Amino acid sequence: MSGVYVVLEDRGGRISRISWEAVAAANILAAQSGTKANAIVIGAQTEALAKEAATKGVAKVVRIEHPLLAQYTPDGFTAALEQFIRAESPNYIVFPHSYQVRDYAPALAARLGRVLIGDVTAIGGLTAASNGPIFTRQLMQGRLSGNYKSAGTGPAFISVQSGAFRADAPETSAAETTTFTPTIDATQIRTKPGEPFRGAAQTVDLGSAQLIVAVGRGIKEADNLPLVQDLATAIGAEIAASRPICDNGWLPIERQVGSSGQTVAPKLYLAVGISGAIQHLVGMKGAQCIVAINKDAEAPIFEVADYGIVGDLFEVVPALTEAVKATKQ
Amino acid sequence: MNLLSSTLAEPQSFSPWEKLLLVALIVASAGLFWRRFGPILKRILNSKKDPNFRLSPVAKRVWDFFWEVLCQAKVIRERPLPGLAHAFVFWGFCAFALVTLNHLATGFGVGFLYPQGLIGRFYFYLAAAFAIACAAGILGLFVRRFFVRPRWLGEKVSYESGFIALLIFLLMVTYLASFAVTDSSPAARILWWAHTLSLLVFLPIIPHTKHLHLVLSPATIFLSRGGFSKIPPLVGDEDFGLVTGTDLTQLVSLQAYSCVECGRCSEHCPATNTGKELNPKEIILGLRGYLNEFGPSSQETLIGKFNSMTADFQCTTCGSCEYQCPVGIEHLPIIIGLRRGAVNTGTWEDDHGAKLFLALERGSNALGMGALERDKFVQKQAFPIFDGTQEYCLWLGCMGGYDPKGREIIADFARVMNYLGTSYGVLRKEKCTGDPVRRLGNDLLFQQLAESNLEALAQNKVKRIVSICPHCVRTIQEDWKEFGTPPEIEHHSEFLARFADKLPKQTTNGKPSEKIAYHDPCYLGRYRNVYEEPRAVAGLAGEVVEAPRSHERSFCCGAGGGLVFLGEETGDRVSHTRAKELVATGASTIGTACPFCNTMFRDALSATGQPAPQLLDIAQLTARGLPDANAAIGRTAPGGSTRE
Amino acid sequence: MKIIVAIKQVPERDAQVRIDSSGKWIEETDLQYAMNESDAYALEEALQLKEKHGAEVVVLSAGPERAGTTIREALAKGADRAIHVEADSLHQHDALGAAQLLAAAVKPESPDLILTGLQSDDLGYGQTGVIMAELLGLPHASLILHVEKTDTGLTVKRELEEGWFQNIDLPLPALLMIQSGGTKLRYATLMGIKKAKTKEFRKIAATDLGHPNEPTAVLEKITLPQKQKSTQIISGSPKEAAATLVEKLKFEVRVI
């Protein structure tokens, strides 16, 4: 049993950004034995994906290819990877903790009598003194951390949280590529996936928005709204508002967040010029990360915010928009 | 004709035909009366018995009867001029009791009051005085109903009211006119028959109209539940509140039939006044309509043809309706009973309501905030933790624990308690008292919250609580009684008023610093009769001025009854309506004594856009006068602008 | 149709949790418990299928005695009967061990559909459902927001990253892991609780269900996270503050 393998995920023909972070994590493990990780790409046509992966700091790229793997299905991917793992007996298999991985990796591990240590945020215990790596993951929705170890014989299955590991800089030399063809029968694939589609574009569904920029009375006039809209566009966020803005008709009522409007729980809630009255707070307190921009240092919003900027939004917001655009390039 | 020397003329003898006719008319009249009244009485008596109804303490019932029925106190107090007119009509009826009996007896030749005798003469003169007052009264009321046409009497002209007014007037006039004629004159006989006919036509009309209150309302007032907004406990596994006709109790049915349709309840209702569907009068009349059509044994749901669920859930439980009702109708247990019927059976589908219930199913407070937030606040303020040794347990409540403004009120009140040297502690954990779910009719949740809290309080050995929220005070003191024995609790205005002489008086050059318009919270005023204590406290900080509707007529802020959690309202906003009234007093500060009123007005004032008066709780008003006022957060001097 | 809904009783969200003396679990005294959030959505989905197509909804939960309250809540909301696998210290099992227990309880029932929540609010593995499907040999799908019954089985709506969705067809019997927020939850009613009193409530000792594997993903220790949640006020000129904020949003919060 040897080797560290990392399973790369692709979207729209290109490897996803989080896969590179998984590579970085896998390389941390591989460094224990002075090697680099081996990348795996899966699909029906993986030549381009393999080429992309080859220069990203991996020792080798394995192409697991089969026509029945054209679209992701848990049955297909599990069967393919199971065969590969049984053939290669790696020490570690690292995944990015994506929706797709959550859908099949636990079944894959169980099939091999193992358990996935998922959503890992840190890998420690890599010194000689410690008895194997320690994988840290969040418990109680982030209120506590747990240190996990992989026990027993068999490969350790790890998935890493988005953003927990920084992707390495790409190398110039390309790694070697091999191909593995699993045996899959069409009857093994029990689910039929449809084409991905977007939610209805017309209706505003703040409830499922992951990123929200909300504007309050600090904006003073309707004419100033484009300022905040630019920021929202730059971040890729939905626009929302506190009640007075919707009352004035500056934004439609569907964008109101609060006790008499929508309740939202996005990954990011950026409150611009919102004081934080309870009627608004109850609508957005479920956000994972709250950022507040307000000129009043005593504004109640700062008590629930993770990050705050006390300043004039007419200066801070444009600066923020610029900074976001710059980082996305 | 000398009035003082004239006596009442009575025809001395009636022919056998006349006597026969009289008997027939009396029988017919009584028969028609009973034909209509009998079924009504039957419906009332066939209704479910009120569990937990006790006649004792009788003394209070007797007093209420004396004060409200005999003295017509509520009738007069709430609408003085028409009330007095009605009182005269009523007293006239009372005074006429013997007159009427004697009148009919005379028809059979067995009259027992002699117009010439001393007693008879005195009595008839007395009755005459009442007759004049009664006639004047009924005339005034007639003019008011048909010419002045106040809004609360409804759009439709009530012909039956007009007819009855005419009959009453006739009764009085025929009586008075009998002083001007002699016993033997034909006029006396005509007057006698006119009076008799008016009487015997009036009698059967009574149960057909709202004048049924003549018969029922004395009983309704005597048999009231006692207390204010007294919500009856549910009994047994099949009781979910007012779901179908079988759930209507005798008291509810009696009250439904007693309604006089005066509209006093609607006149003061915040929902009716802001263009909403809810009209308390219609709720009661709806029950009457239901009973008339379906009866008390029907399985037909109460919500339906005669009652609107939308209207039921627009009630803030402010209590103006029940408080005012001159015939003893208790609206709140009825509206809450209807809500219970909908919520306890899961028929009420409302996104915000479900959200509130789910928040309390899964968490500890009505706002859906994490308990951690309250912990952080308690730690930040370094409040002492209650350990059984302190004098008071300071109850934060949901608003005091999680709302930024509520927290300021708590912090300032704590400051005042420190100044006064009162020992207090806050509980490590609190759960919502359950007020909003109680008023919305969710008995499952309320029981869970009440029992859980009572257990925690007992474990922590809490004996006395002080709270900044009248809703918490009411729920803990009254509603929790259903599940245990709650500790003593008082509102912070009652606490502060006791120490008024120890608290600094805020003046500028010897004069009050500013004018403060004090708003009476529903749950402190009407529910608890606490009016003067908060004024005494506010009076330390400035000159208290009154809004046009104050004390027991205070107009709701709109948050109660769980409504603050139910999202957007239709029509005008109740809070805005009241805020305008308070602003119009010209005061530089609006004083509140309830964190919900505070948050509602904060919203309303910031929506006006113009510089609004300051908005401060009485605790904050008191705290700003303390020597270390400058150290406090969010302090603004009198006359300063709001933070928004 | 027979639907089994697997639910878990977890500590109340957003409450303070403390590490116990062993350092391997949390201090359970003084904690409030509630139904796991995504499980509540799974239950709701099952109840809606029952209302639309007629079904028997069986609620299944593994946990200590206190889990009974949460199971009764599910009965009160409309489930037809309950199975309580009595097990203390569930946290000592890894996801495979927990799934083995539940699968053993499910097997004799031969349900048409098994619904679980997406992940638990305490351990948050998010794997139990997928592993159960594997152990029972059933097709599955996760992150499901909506379930429709069809002539050939089910069509479900799955959530993908970044605002995309996907419909998946699968045959019955199957297992689905339900995501929160796909529908509106119903509240527990007094009438529901009263009816629940007469519903079948079967208890099975975990030991009667066989021995799960020894954990291979071992929770060795629980610690407080490095960063406590407190407000970081970012200072500096607007440009500086903006740059700092973007940095934090990118690398600490990972939303950009």
Explain this structure to me?
The complex is a heterotrimer of chains A (329), B (644) and C (256). With 329 residues, chain A is of the alpha/beta class. Chain A is 28% helix and 26% strand. Chain A has two domains: 4-188, 3-Layer(aba) Sandwich (Rossmann fold); 206-328, Rossmann fold (3-Layer(aba) Sandwich), CATH 3.40.50.1220. In chain A, helix 2 links the parallel strand 4 and strand 5 (60-65). In chain A, helix 3 crosses helix 4 and helix 5 (225-235) packs parallel to helix 9. The longest helix of chain A is centred in the C-terminal third of the chain and has 16 residues, at 313-328. The mean pLDDT of chain A is 90. Chain B has 644 residues and is mainly α. Chain B has helices at 16-46, 58-70, 73-78, 80-107, 118-148, 159-177, 186-205, 213-222, 250-258, 264-268, 270-273, 280-293, 309-312, 320-324, 331-343, 351-362, 371-381, 397-402, 404-420, 435-440, 443-459, 470-477, 492-498, 532-541, 574-583, 595-608, 618-623; strands at residues 392-395, 424-425, 464-467, 488-491, 507-508, 511-512, 515-518, 543-546, 589-592, 614-617. In chain B, helix 1 packs parallel to helix 7 (186-205) and helix 9 (250-258) crosses helix 12. With 256 residues, chain C is an alpha/beta fold. Chain C contains six helices and 13 strands. In chain C, the strands form two sheets. Chain C has a nine-stranded mixed sheet with strand order 9-8-7-10-6-1-4-5-11, sandwiched between helices. The interface between B and C is medium-sized, with 27 and 24 residues.
User: Greatest interface and its residue counts?
Assistant: A-C, 84 and 75 residues
CATH architecture of the largest domain in chain C: 3-Layer(aba) Sandwich
Helix proportion of chain B: 40-55%
* Class by alpha and beta content of chain C: alpha/beta
Portion of residues in beta strands of chain B equals 5-15%
How many domains make up the coordinates of chain C? Answer: 2
Structurally, the number of domains of chain B stands at 4
Structure annotation, total helices of chain B: 27
The CATH superfamily name of the largest domain in chain C is HUPs
Strand order of the largest sheet of chain B: 2-1-3-4
CATH topology of the largest domain in chain B: Fumarate Reductase Cytochrome B subunit
Shape of chain B: elongated
Assign a percent range to the helix content of chain C.
25-40%
Instruction: Report the biggest beta sheet of chain C as strand number plus sense, adding barrel if it closes.
Output: 9 strands, mixed
Q: First CA to last CA of chain C: what distance? A: 45 Å
What is the highest CATH level, the class of the largest domain in chain B?
Answer: Mainly Alpha
CATH topology of the largest domain in chain C: Rossmann fold
- Level-2 CATH architecture of the largest domain in chain B: Up-down Bundle
